[in-house]
Amino acid sequence: MGFPVFFDTCVLFGEVVNDVILRLAEELLFTPYWSGDVLDELERNLTPRIGKERTQRRICAMNSAFPDAAVEGYAPLIRDMTCDDKDRHVLAAAAYSPAATLVTFNLKDFPPQSIQSVGIELRHPDDFLMDVLDLDPARVSHACYDALMSYRLYPQTPLEYASMLTKSGLPNFAGRLLPLLETLHESRSI
């Protein structure tokens, strides 16, 4: 089992980033955590974009794949958090969880003093995934190659997949992953 990591709603929102995160968690490279409040926020934000049925399917799949990911019991800590008001539930749940790392695109919402006071490390998803790639390049690249091969229409090539990752806010990860995917693609095309 991998190290515990708490994910903010914004990381779970985008389909591409969500897919990468969950695939790598399935590889046991890390153990994902989130809260009911994070999933409620995800549902509120996704439903207008992709519809209620698809949103519920995604959240159900997340909970089914990771039944121990939901953190509970953190509500009394929310009022003591000193980050941005709308993200206090996120920091409280992260602090209450076994995770020492909170992954978010919204770094500015968590000032250094707010995370230091609860002993949480803050990571941007691009930096976090670079760290995971450093830990096990082979497993990460194979999982991402499997993702590429699972798409029916787009992307079809490692370059297109890397472009999707870049557009999703993961440019450094995409750049480091691309040569590994190209090598896999060449070896499997022979």
List keywords for this structure.
5 strands, single chain, 11 helices, 10% strand, alpha/beta, 190 residues, 62% helix
Please provide a written account of the structure:
By secondary structure, this protein is of the alpha/beta class. The protein contains eleven helices and five strands, in the order βααβααβααβαβαααα. It has a five-stranded parallel beta sheet, with helices on both faces. Helix 7 (112-116) links the parallel strand 4 and strand 5. Helix 3 (36-50) packs antiparallel against helix 4, helix 8 crosses helix 11 (171-189) and helix 10 runs antiparallel to helix 11. 37% of the residues are buried.
Concise structural overview:
This protein has helices spanning 9-13, 15-26, 36-50, 52-65, 75-78, 88-96, 112-116, 125-135, 137-150, 158-167, 171-189, and strands spanning 3-7, 30-35, 70-71, 101-103, 121-123.
Number of helices: 11
Number of DSSP E strands:
5
Which class best fits the helix and strand makeup?
Answer: alpha/beta
Strand content: 5-15%
Radius of gyration: 17 Å
Helix % is 55-70%
Largest sheet, in brief, is: 5 strands, parallel
How many angstroms separate the termini? Answer: 34 Å
Order of SSEs: EHHEHHEHHEHEHHHH
Shape: globular
Per-chain topology:
Blueprint: E1 3-7, H1 9-13, H2 15-26, E2 30-35, H3 36-50, H4 52-65, E3 70-71, H5 75-78, H6 88-96, E4 101-103, H7 112-116, E5 121-123, H8 125-135, H9 137-150, H10 158-167, H11 171-189
